[in-house]
Amino acid sequence: MSLAGFPNPVLDQQAAFRAVMQALAEPGCIVPSGAMVGEASPLGPVARAIALSLLDFEVRYHLSPSLAAAESDITFHTGSRLADRADEADFAFVDCAHDALDLARYAQGTPEYPDRSTTIILKVESLAGGPTLAIDGPGIPGTRELAIPGLPADFIAQWAANAARAPLGVDLLFTTNEAVLGLPRSTRILGEAR
Amino acid sequence: MYVAVKGGERAIANAHRLLEHERRGDRKVPEIGTDQIEQQLSLAVDRVMSEGSLYDRGLASLAIKQARGDLIEAIFLIRAYRTTLPRFGFSVPLDTGAMAIRRRISSTYKDLPGGQVLGPTFDYTHRLLDFALAAEGEPAAPVTAPVDPEERFPRVTDLIAQDDLIERNPPTDPAKPVGDLTREPLAFPAERDLRLQNLARGDEGFLLALGYSTQRGYGRNHPFVGEIRMGEVEVEFEIPELGLTVALGEVTLTECQMVNQFKGSLTEPAKFTRGYGLSFGHCERRAMSMALVDRALRADELSEERTSPAQDEEFVLSHSDNIQATGFVEHLKLPHYVDFQAELALLRQMRRELTSRNTHPEAAE
Amino acid sequence: MSRTAENYRGYNFAYLDEQTKRMIRRAILKAIAIPGYQVPFASREMPMPYGWGTGGVQVTAAILGPTDVLKVIDQGADDTTNAVSIRQFFEKTAGVETTTETEKATVIQTRHRIPEAKLQAHQVLVYQVPIPEPLRFLEPRETETRTLHALAEYGLMHVRLYEDIAQHGHIAKTYAYPVLVADRYVMDPSPIPKFDNPKMHESAALQLFGAGREKRIYAIPPHTKVVSLDFEDHPFEATKFDQPCALCGATDSYLDEVITDDRGGRMFVCSDTHHCETRRAEGHVGTLGTPVTEAAE
Predict the structure, then answer these.
(1) Residue B297 lies inside a defined structural domain of this protein
(2) Nearest to B2 among C51, C175, C267 (CB)
(3) For residue C197, which of C153, C155, C228 has the smallest C-alpha distance?
């Protein structure tokens, strides 16, 4: 299976990046993806657009087991190499519907270089309609609501552990077929809203 | 009535036009060609290539012309151009042992295989202005000796190493990619590959001053010029897909290997240590200075106490780049109205407060 | 004079190559996720000098898209030479629309000022930064300051600021006044006057900082707590001016001092030229201003 790259790489990469930038700057907001490509990719079109926009030979990526088929496509289009281990990856792709999520197994950064951490791009069915969680932190005026369905049962505990590691820790980008939602390490989940 | 200053755009365009005019100088005098610069100001070209980190004599000549002979400005032009070039890969490590020698001297041995070759050097010229040159006198043709293609010029450090009297070059891991500070931000402590890259493109004046300071006792390391060699070396590129190595052309290089003192330890026999300098073109002063500073920066590795500026890696590597340095020094001429106003306001306030304290001392209690 | 325009042909959109943009974009995302932390990035050599906005230019070039509207200011003004030069650079290399109107801009690159008009959501303010390290004036070594940040050990900074108070009765920092971002990192806000510091706090706009020569990028996401360092007995106080702008009569803006003669004559005018022009267009006139009709351009 060979999938097409961006029809207009320069502008499409910029558009995809700006959506991700906005998603991380305004955690919990559902941001329509600026560019999508390759609906047939196991990653889904938005996550794949992120891959094509941010990956290159200078970084390494990791795939959760059910996304393994995406390797040749990602490597071909980006020149990025698959990392041997999750904690060696700059970017990781995880299918939340099929694969377990363990935030602690990825690179967390170091106290001197907290940026040397993994950015995890998660594939989910939807960004709305799940149990509502209240979040706060930088990028959020007051609090904001998060309602992603189908998160692992222990997600809140995992996220609390991640937030406790801040400024170390991982950053998350939830993706569907249309949009992206960011959850940087600086965001706290306050608990179930109402 | 006050009208705010406008027309920055026009002022800039006109300033640049005037600059072009000044660069050209008196139009009655023939314009200098880049070929003339390349041929007759060749050492300026060499310096621009070295510090510009780009081996291209034609472009360096153009940059010198455009910069009106301001070499740092010319280096800046080359650097800004270089950064836009795509990278295809790394060459095979150059073999300076196979250099086509044009100059080769050693200050450690009176004679050695290949001999001492003075070559084109200012050394031993009497620095007397040559007024014949002002009258465009043609120099005499050079005297040449027959070249023996079989003649080998083994590196002096290799000869010393045969007796195990000098440290081996530190082993390198071929699997580990060579660092590139133009693609990765420098972090400290830096490995020697990055240090050498930094020095190789560092400002000649800065390297010279630091090297000199080690000789005067600020990080003394007792150097001897094992060897300086200058000549042409082949650049080769490996194409793994085709399983072959192709020659891309040759570059002129100056290499300096300093042989330095080292005490040794209880467990290790005393050995000479190395300082290394390499430069594009014929740039002996910078290759020698670089070798002195390289050796000084190895203080930690050789368990020497770091006491002097030339041994201070962070200090040296952070300030060696003249493009960074000139940019930041010269940025002081940009407007700083806002910050100056903030300082002015505080200064005035503090002086008011002092005056009021002095006039009403009781109020200050 | 079309030679200048010629020179840019053959360069990529917004000058930087795509690989460089990706590298910068990755750094920007990390910077946003770790507010106030300085992310190292492989700053490129730009066709303008280090110290003249190469960091800001690289950040702007990495985020800019064809639908963006760009404003560039230096000292608050759109018409200072370096602002003009940088604006022209992006007009030529990206062909984006430019503006002097703060409200119309989606991306604002600045040196030394934050516009007076309150910034809005989805605007991005890009600062040019000369020395990103707030601890640099205490400790010149990167290896040391990095450890201090890792440990959030900012006692030294407080001691130094308090020494100022002991000596001068004031914290003698009037610009590049350090702030604590999101209760974690002490950050240098670039040499903006401390007058502007409160504008960073809970701003609706994303704030990105680029230091080209020092190879660092950092960020303040929108709606983030930004506190200027101070002491209970010496709370932070923004600079105040004891007179209004002589052209538009504004009393709430930062003023430039202009010397008008050699007999001590001086006047104070808004440093934010767009703010001043807008107010004059609305009919505000200062003591030395003229009604707007003939004042324009």
Answers:
(1) yes
(2) C267
(3) C228
- Residue ranges covered by each domain of chain A: 9-184
Is C36 tagged catalytic? yes
C169 is catalytic: no
Give the distance between the most distant pair of CA atoms in chain C: 60
- Within a domain: B353: no
CB of B290 within 8 A of CB of B320?
no
Same domain, B53 and B161: no
Structural domains counted in chain B: 2
- Same domain? For B35 and B74 the reply is yes
Min Cα distance A71 → chain C (Å) is 20
- Domain hosting residue B292, numbered range: 96-121+149-170+178-326
Nearest CA in chain C to A56: C19
- Cβ atoms of C290 and B1 within 8 Å: the answer is yes
Cβ B341–C82 below 8 Å, yes or no?
no
Residues B50 and B165 in one domain: no
Task: Give the distance from residue B7's alpha carbon to the nearest chain C alpha carbon, in angstroms.
Answer: 7
Q: Which of C120, C118, C67 lies closest to C94 in space, CA to CA?
A: C67
Structurally, at CATH architecture level, domain A9-184 sits in 3-Layer(aba) Sandwich (3.40)
For residue A27, which of A168, A161, A163, A141 has the smallest C-alpha distance?
A141
Asked if the structure places residue B348 within a domain, the reply is no
Same domain? For B274 and B318 the reply is: yes
C265 is catalytic: no
Residues of C in contact with B1 (CB under 8 A): 288, 290
Active site residue C245: yes
Regarding whether B213 and B237 lie in a shared domain, the answer is: yes
Amino acid at B323: I
pLDDT in tens, chain C (297 residues): 333 444 455 678 999 999 999 999 999 999 999 999 999 999 999 999 999 999 999 999 999 999 999 999 999 999 888 999 999 999 999 999 999 999 999 999 999 999 999 999 999 999 999 999 999 988 999 999 999 999 999 998 999 899 989 888 888 899 999 999 999 999 999 999 999 999 999 999 999 999 999 999 999 999 999 999 999 999 998 888 889 999 999 999 999 999 999 898 999 999 999 999 999 999 999 988 776 555 444
C249 catalytically annotated: no
The string of pLDDT tens digits covering residues A25-53 is 999 999 999 888 877 899 999 999 999 99
Angstrom CA distances, C148 to A87, A111, C151, stand at 26, 10, 5
CB contact under 8 A, C295 and B339: no
Angle (CA) C101-C103-C107 rounded to 5° is 85
B189 and B46 part of one domain: no
CA distance C263 to C268: 16
Whether the Cβ atoms of residue A96 and residue A175 lie closer than 8 Å to each other: no
In this predicted model, what pLDDT tens digit does every residue of A97-111 receive, in sequence order? 999 999 999 999 999
Q: Is the CB of residue C158 less than 8 Å away from at least one CB of chain A? A: no
User: Pick from B8, B187, B343: which is nearest to C174 by CB?
Assistant: B343
> Does residue B1 form part of some domain?
no
Minimal Cα–Cα distance from A54 to chain C, Å? Answer: 5
The answer to whether residues B75 and B100 belong to one domain is no
ipTM above 0.95, yes or no: yes
